[in-house]
Amino acid sequence: MANERLREAMLKVGISTFELADKLGVNAKTVERWITLDRIPYPRHRHALAAALQEREAYLWPNAVTPERAARVAESELVHVYPRRAAIPFDVWTRLIRQSTEEIGILVYAGLFLPEQVPTLIKDLTVKAQAGVRVRVLLGDPESEAVAARGAEEGIGDAMAGKVRNVLAFYNQLRGVPGVFARYHGTTLYNSMYRFDDELLVNTHAYGFPAAHAPVLHLRRLSAGELFDTYADSFDRVWSSGRPIWPAAVAA
After folding, report:
1. pTM higher than 0.90, yes or no?
2. Shortest CA distance to 77 belongs to which of 179, 249, 221?
3. Ordered domains of the chain (ranges, CATH)
4. Is 248 in a helix, a strand, or coil?
5. Residue 120: HSE in the Cβ half-sphere, 13 Å Cα cutoff
6. Strand 191-196 to 180-185 pairing
7. Distances (CA, A) of 97 to 112, 137, 185
8. How far is residue 155 CA from its own chain's centroid?
9. Residues with Cβ within 8 Å of residue 224, at least 6 apart in sequence
10. Which of 35, 91, 155, 218 could potentially form a cystine with 79 if both were Cys, beta carbons 3.0 to 4.6 Å apart?
């Protein structure tokens, strides 16, 4: 069976079998076998191929990594565990935002703390979007059952919906900025997420506790890893189910 993922990745970046072979210092027939016979390259070649094709090893060769190594890689993707969200230093937020070059994603019910804790948030997101970074903001739909349930679980009732409306006053300043997209979602939110390119802060949720009092996982994507992508894929699923808060200046 052919490795169609590898073939597609090569087509995507416009590199030929001979060019790739020359780049890796191998015979063109070797590269052809990697494609047509789904032969798995040596680890050093997998790393180089993934970098050249801008894809993850785990995607190109899902069976190449043993369960034992996959577990070790997952541990390596975990940069830090904060016992609660409030323990994240201010400079971590500002560094992650300002170092982003491709993607910033915010998935919360309200997340009112963020524009309050990072006073330059709206300015920073505007600058990033103008520089070509895609900014996606997902807020809980204040009319949804999920937001009402979360408010009840935290013992604050309708105040949760009120917090969503309050935070929207901040994000409305981004309305019309090309590259910034905002949607409401009505999903059960198992984690709040904050994505900055290949780094991700996952604020776990615990029943009856506000998100500020729950642990946060700081993840960094590795080519052979799957932990980061599990959460990134979850973000994309919620995004797909959302509805625009206001018309985007450029189609998402």
Report:
1. no
2. 221
3. 4-64 (1.10.260.40), 75-244 (3.30.870.10)
4. coil
5. 10
6. unpaired
7. 17, 13, 23
8. 30
9. 46, 56, 57, 58, 65, 69, 70, 73
10. 218
Q: Which amino acid is at 110?
A: A
Pairing mode, strands 103-107 and 78-82? unpaired
* Dist CA 58 CA 232 (whole Å): 15
The C-alpha torsion from 36 through 33 and 61 to 7, rounded to 10°, is -50
- The residues, ordered by sequence, that sit 6+ positions from 119 with a Cβ below 8 Å of its Cβ are none
Tens of pLDDT, residue by residue over 128-170, are 999 999 999 999 999 999 989 888 888 887 888 899 999 999 9
Q: What is the largest CA-CA distance in the chain?
A: 66
Q: CA-CA distance, 190 to 167, in Å (whole number)? A: 20
**CB neighbour burial string for 33-44, b if at least 16 within 10 angstroms, e if fewer:** ebbeeeeebeee
Closest CA to 31 of 42, 20, 44, 23: 20
C-alpha to C-alpha distance for 92 and 203, rounded to whole angstroms: 14
Task: Give the contacts of 102 (CB within 8 A, at least 6 positions apart).
Answer: 132, 133, 134, 197
At residue 162, what is the residue type? G
Digit-coded pLDDT (tens) for 47-75? 888 888 888 787 788 777 666 666 666 67
CB atoms within 10 A of CB 89: 9
